[in-house]
Amino acid sequence: MNPERQPTTVTDELLNKWSTDSTGPVGLHLKQKLLPVEAVGGKNNEDGQVRPVIFPPTYADIGYNIDTLMDGTRVATIDSVGSQANRLEPMFKSDSSDRNDWLVPQIKIKLNEGKTVSLLELAHRSADSVVRSSPGLLKLAQDAFDSLRKGNAGPLCELAPTSLVFGVWDSRGESGEKRPRLVRSIIRAWNVESLHAAAQFNSVWKALDEDQQNELKKDAKAKKIELSEKGFADAPGVFRKSDKVPQFREGAPNPEARVLGGVIVHGQIERQVTVNLVALRALRGKDETETNAIRKYLLGLSLMAATADIELFLREGCLLRYADGKDSWWQVPRRGEPTEVTLEKSVIEQYVKASATHFRPRWPERLEFKFDLKEAKNLLAKTTKEEASTKGS
Asked: Do 186 and 200 have their domain in common?
């Protein structure tokens, strides 16, 4: 990379080339430096480095997802690829009743009298179990996946374009079709050190008289419950609940079983975003005109998602911010040095709006569907493509 070379300003012409020219770059890449909001006010230790404590996501049985590299560096996942996709996709929701204001179809599913969800909020997008349990929408999704399996991405692009932007796998459907993400984003923290937490819950027990205590003990024993479950006993918060990890080893507390208390970040917190242009140009329509329209539309949506300043309140104890005022995007060729490009959000937005006009007339007339509990029960009885592949391995 040559930092002295002036960045190339992205135009509609260049965007068209990226989406349709098979000799074009293989991808676009961004690396963002993030900081916790607590990392303000400058230095907080002798060597002048800010070492904030943040809370990564916790996973069943393993706690934090931390890997140790060959050189001893410990790297923590702060937000996974799937989680980032689920944070980005809802940005395409619109409150407007005018279809001309939409960038994608605004499909909704009524779960019950009190709850309606957007297709853009579903973790598995158009392949989600909720879609497969909504008869009218299921038919549209099945037809779209069947066309995709035969090489035509047009129907799915008309129904649920973000399924192609953020990746989709019809593992519960007949097609079994699987498409990679066009936008991949992940947040990692480098050179981390795990901390533990401890707490002590003090109940009202000591304030009760002996008769009250005896009555409660008697009743708890008869009902085979612990007093601590109902808040009538002091309880320490030192160990995580797990049947697989012992709380003590050789008479000492097992660190792997302790309540997690976040991580100290000695290195950088980085968000990396990649737009996969090879995967984009692998998508096709029923003819050349349709193919070009699909690629331009999906590129625009992908870049809009990739350049969005998403909220970085990831979870309790992990509120981040962008460290730099300017993002440096790089177009990566098959060979040779990557070159820096300037992605103007206004240019991308206009590009998306223009490319969406090709598909807007084909968006479904019906936009609200109803979840059917009977269909959901039928789905439970079926063997999915994922289950079948697992059994056969």
From this structure: no
Q: CB of 128 within 8 A of CB of 101?
A: no
Over residues 17-49, the pLDDT tens digits come to 999 999 999 999 999 999 999 887 654 444 556
> Could you give the CA distance from residue 48 to residue 64 in angstroms, rounded to a whole number?
27
Q: For residue 171, is pLDDT > 50?
A: yes
Short-list 87, 83, 80, 86, CA closest to 65: 80
Q: Are residues 254 and 268 in the same domain?
A: no
What's the full length of the chain, in residues?
393
**pTM of this prediction?**
0.85
Residues β-bridged to residue 237: 199
Three-class DSSP category at 388: helix
Which of 258, 282, 312 is the C-terminal boundary of a domain? 258
In a domain, 37, yes or no: yes
Query: Whole-angstrom Cα distance, residue 345 to residue 342?
Result: 9
Nearest to 26 by CA among 186, 182, 187, 161: 182
Which structural domain range is residue 131 located in?
A: 8-192+264-384
Q: Indicate left, alpha or beta for 92 from its phi (over 0: left) and psi (-120 to 50: alpha).
A: alpha
Smallest CA-to-CA distance from 300 within 140, 104, 132, 128 is with 104
H helices, E strands: number in the chain: 12, 24
Q: Is residue 101 within 8 Å of 337, Cβ to Cβ? A: no
Residue 153 DSSP one-character state: -
d(CA 169, CA 163): 9
Quick one: pLDDT at residue 48? 57
With 50 as the cut, is the pLDDT of residue 215 above it? yes
Three-class SS state of 140: helix
For 230-295, give the DSSP string.
GT-S-EEE-B---SSS-SEETTEE-GGGBPEEEEEESS-EEEEEEEEHHHHHT---SSHHHHHHHH
pLDDT tens-place string over residues 46-90 = 455 667 899 999 988 888 999 999 999 999 999 999 999 999 999
